[in-house]
């Protein structure tokens, strides 16, 4: 939802969909309450079976996998890869592979992200479901 912040800033009306309401105040936020006109509770937001398809499929290209592995190694060695770090990825094949390689390092080092945004895909959902992204 990080990209929606700019849209909400300039939209005539902002309507949010949610499956459940969180305790107030909720942290972290992507869109401030002063930018929201309406919140609608729905049974399910989107179809989770479709978030890993099309352009959001994991790459099998050896060159992209090598780049992704090296990116994960740079993130790991950056000094910022520690408990409570923030994670933002894209949704292309190489970015999904970076997320997968980071997952291995997160498990090994017992590190969780405070929040994640960007390409919210099957890989990112898997991190959340594994408890590797904090749930406030």
UniProtKB/TrEMBL annotation:
Pfam families: CitF. The lineage of its organism: Bacteria, Pseudomonadati, Pseudomonadota, Gammaproteobacteria, Pasteurellales. InterPro entries: Citrate_lyase_asu (IPR006472), NagB/RpiA_transferase-like (IPR037171). This is Citrate lyase alpha chain. One of its GO terms (biological process) is acetyl-CoA metabolic process. It comes from Rodentibacter pneumotropicus. Keywords: Lyase. GO terms for cellular component: ATP-independent citrate lyase complex; cytoplasm. Its EC number is 4.1.3.6. GO terms for molecular function: citrate (pro-3S)-lyase activity; citrate CoA-transferase activity. The gene is citF_3.
């Amino acid at each position: 939802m990080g990209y929606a912040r700019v849209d909400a800033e300039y939209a005539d009306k902002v309507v949010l969909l949610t499956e459940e309401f969180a305790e107030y105040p909720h942290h972290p936020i992507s869109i401030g309450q002063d930018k929201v006109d309406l919140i609608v509770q729905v049974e399910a937001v989107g179809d989770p079976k479709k978030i890993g398809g099309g352009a959001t499929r994991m790459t099998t290209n050896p060159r992209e996998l090598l780049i992704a592995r090296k990116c994960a190694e740079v993130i790991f060695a950056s000094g910022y890869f520690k408990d409570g770090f923030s994670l933002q990825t894209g949704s292309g094949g190489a970015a999904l592979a970076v997320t997968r390689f980071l997952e291995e390092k997160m498990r090994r080092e017992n590190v969780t992200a405070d929040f994640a945004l960007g390409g919210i895909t099957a890989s990112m959902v898997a991190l959340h479901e594994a408890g590797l992204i904090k749930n406030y």
